[in-house]
Amino acid sequence: MPRPVSQPDLRLLAKVSCMYYEQKLTQQEIAQRLHLSRPKVSRLLQQAEEAGIVQIIIKTPSGVLHADLEARLEQMFGLLEVFVVDVEAGASQEIISRRVGAAAAAYLQRTVEAGDTIGFAWGTTLNGMVSALTPIEVKNVHVVQLIGGLGPPESDLHAAEVCRRLAHLLNAKLTLIPAPGIVGSEEMKEIVLADSYVQSAFRQFSAINVAYLGIGVPSPDSVMMRDGSIITEEELAMLKAKGALGDIVLRFFDKQGQHIRSDVDSRVIGITLEDLSKIERVVGVAGGPLKDEVVLGALRGGLINVLITDAGLATRILERG
Fold first, then answer.
1. What is the pLDDT of residue 22?
2. Most exposed among 69, 243, 307, 311, judged by the fewest C-beta atoms under 10 Å?
3. Rounded distance, CA 69 to CA 75, Å?
4. Rounded mean pLDDT of 250-273?
5. 173 Cβ neighbours under 8 A, 6+ residues apart
6. Is the pLDDT of residue 110 over 60?
7. What is the DSSP string of 39-98?
8. Left (φ > 0), alpha (ψ -120 to 50) or beta: where does 52 sit?
């Protein structure tokens, strides 16, 4: 219940409120006209709100449907931000990935700042993000590839190609990892990591202040498994036996978001989950009915602190979280 205010105060509270909210005067202008201090005007406006004289109503614009859902997820998992996009019921995974990717592009366009160093991964949804992005004029932006190349080098989904396109759209400096994303043995990894260009790329990881990641499901029909050049069926079975639920840049984790260490993990050429945890903003971009468990695991483990997803997945996570 609003606290009682004496009658003389009511007139002053109403007058100050009208001048500020209706006449659009600044607090300093009101202070000068009413011969008050500016801090006094600020306190009067606060009192007017507490007394119910001023009632601030936030009206969600048409087309912005999920503000409450976003807020509840942010609170539940301690996230910096959740961006939920609406997708028609029954939409294909391709359509969902495109819509979520477009939302991620809008988020990047809104948040990118001069001097940013952006770490970027790979995958269908991030490819959709870059495809939806329009050129942006921002100074001194640097794009850093987070994991070596995966899949056919000529593919649009290849990490180097996606990063090149992003850097071009941002007119940004680009650092690529001139190596495959996974090699055949730990000995081969040591040889690759000895390369001066690879070392130079890895040194950039500590400068990254925002990273964009897909959250993968290690299923037989996923992009990761399509041609057998990234993960074999035997390796997938081994990872699942260890409790692997999903991956971020080929770093597999369980349903609580805990890192699964394996022979596969020891052969990856790219950023580690430990290094990702040091980045200020880690943006997970994922959507679709197959991603519930992996996104929930990533959230439980604190692997990301910004989530961009579709309304269906967001609703299911909220119900299960």
1. 87
2. 243
3. 10
4. 95
5. 140, 141, 142, 143, 167
6. yes
7. HHHHHHHHHHHHTTSS----PPPTT---HHHHHHHHHHHT-SEEEEE---TT--HHHHHH
8. left
* pLDDT bucket at 211, cuts 50 / 70 / 90: very high
State pLDDT tens for residues 32-47: 988 889 999 999 998 9
Q: In the predicted model, what is the mean pLDDT of the chain?
A: 89
Distance of CA 252 to the CA centre of its chain: 19
pLDDT single digits (tens) 232-244: 888 888 999 999 9
pLDDT of amino acid 10: 83
Query: What is the Cα–Cα distance from 11 to 297, expressed in whole angstroms?
Result: 55
Q: Taking phi first (over 0 means left), then psi (-120 to 50 degrees means alpha), and beta for anything else, what does residue 73 get?
A: alpha
Residue with tokens 């596969």: 264
| CB-based contact 100:252 (threshold 8 Å) | no
**Total residues found in the chain within this entry:** 321
